[in-house]
């Protein structure tokens, strides 16, 4: 299967300061892993474009988008919240990150590629329609989903979010949209302290206790995600691909292994093959222990390529 790899060097220039876990080295380490394993040469590589105002305003308020533009500093750092900051290069990086999901959507729906992985930052799934938070400025996956619905006229789109933090922004944006299903696993109680009691027949939340391992995670997916997806029959799948529930990542207290990320990607591909003509767009979210992040992204991509692991 042909897999697109969407990236832009502008995403390396966004830097929230020394010691911040959401750092440029995340993308460098991923690319080094893909080079070392020979995977990068097997991918269809594309530069992420800048998202347009028309694309952003489908999921964010015009006032919020303008506030981010106005906040962009010409030097130094400015804080948007306790965890999220902008430097002079952040705005372009955030626009590239959102634009990557639009390009990936176009490529997959044009059948130029079977699926796509967006190696971008800043991440997006905490960004609400009018609020930056949790390292996120624009909700990259949401921008792609809205583009699939509004521009390509899809009727049923699923977001599958296995980041260790609840995708509160994605839920807020699409809570009342009948065209979107969100399936999310996340540690609870844990930042952003949402999701446990906000589910519905389309917002499928599966909170995990703080010491959950791969068996607990897999059972949660089998019990909650898979029946819901079989009912919904999505025409396209977007993935909020966070790797921070890995047992080596000290950003959380959930203990997933490399094999668990292979397994969940296999489930996603299986659902996509059954209902979505294999159409998957995966967008990087969290993952802060660099070695496990790089390994798991590479494994995730191998499964998207249809390779045996």
Automatic annotation (TrEMBL):
Domain Histone deacetylase: 20-304
UniProt-listed InterPro entries: HDACs (IPR000286), His_deacetylse_dom (IPR023801), His_deacetylse_dom_sf (IPR037138), Ureohydrolase_dom_sf (IPR023696)
Source superkingdom: Bacteria
GO molecular function, one term: histone deacetylase activity
One GO term (biological process): epigenetic regulation of gene expression
Family the UniProt entry places it in: Belongs to the histone deacetylase family.
Stated name of the protein: Deacetylase
Biological classification of the source: Bacteria, Pseudomonadati, Pseudomonadota, Betaproteobacteria, Nitrosomonadales
């Amino acid at each position: 299967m042909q897999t697109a790899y969407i990236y832009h060097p502008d995403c390396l220039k966004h830097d929230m300061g020394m010691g911040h876990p959401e750092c440029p080295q995340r993308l460098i380490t991923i690319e080094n892993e893909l080079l070392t394993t020979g995977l990068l040469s097997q991918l269809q590589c594309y530069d992420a474009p800048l998202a347009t105002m028309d694309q952003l305003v489908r999921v964010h308020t015009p006032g919020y988008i303008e506030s981010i533009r106005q906040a962009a500093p010409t030097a130094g750092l400015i804080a948007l919240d306790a965890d999220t900051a902008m430097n002079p290069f952040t705005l372009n990086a955030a626009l590239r990150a959102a634009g990557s999901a639009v390009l990936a959507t176009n490529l997959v729906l044009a059948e130029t590629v079977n699926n796509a992985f967006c190696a971008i930052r800043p991440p997006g799934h905490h960004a609400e329609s009018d609020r930056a938070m949790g390292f996120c400025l624009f909700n990259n996956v949401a921008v792609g989903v809205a583009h699939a619905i509004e521009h390509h006229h899809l009727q049923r789109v699923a977001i599958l979010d296995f980041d260790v933090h609840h995708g509160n922004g994605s839920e807020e944006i699409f809570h009342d949209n009948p065209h979107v299903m969100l399936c999310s696993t996340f540690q609870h109680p844990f930042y952003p302290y949402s999701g446990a009691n906000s589910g519905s027949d389309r917002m499928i939340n599966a909170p995990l206790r703080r010491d959950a391992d791969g068996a607990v995670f897999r059972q949660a997916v089998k019990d909650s995600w898979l029946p819901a997806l079989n009912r919904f029959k999505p025409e396209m799948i977007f993935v909020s691909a966070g790797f921070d529930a890995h047992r080596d990542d000290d950003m959380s207290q959930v203990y997933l292994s490399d094999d668990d990320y292979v397994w969940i990607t296999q489930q996603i591909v299986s659902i996509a093959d059954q209902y979505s003509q294999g159409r998957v767009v995966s967008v990087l979210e969290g993952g802060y222990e660099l070695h496990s992040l790089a390994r798991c992204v590479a494994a995730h991509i191998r499964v998207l390529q249809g390779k045996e692991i």
